[in-house]
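I'll show an entry:

:::
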Amino acid sequence: MSTEEKLSALSQLIAFAKTGKAIKSVEYDFLVLIANQIGVSKNEFDELLNNPVPHINLQTESERIVQFHRLLLLMNVDKEIESSELERIHQLGLKMGLNIQAIDKTLEIMHQFKNNNIPPEVLLNIFKTYYN
């Protein structure tokens, strides 16, 4: 991922965390971990909190699936899932160009896993099943 794509992906996650409320400390900590994983400094991340960058569509489907997984993990990090979050994550998946059946299946079965955290290999298998 380019630097612009990384910052855009983080901005998308921040916007999701801020939807209708302030970012909880557990969400903030999770987002900082993601920033660290993708090579974005804490200072750059903190700047994004107040100054988001424009959205850039991730180029490859695998990058979009990874971003969708990050959104799922973020949604579940506080162990509270609101129906509005489910709808929003569904819409974000569609905007990313992901397969609607794979999105629906993921949201349907994620509840079968501890803390609703669907393992990456299960998520990838779902998307492989519905690959066009």
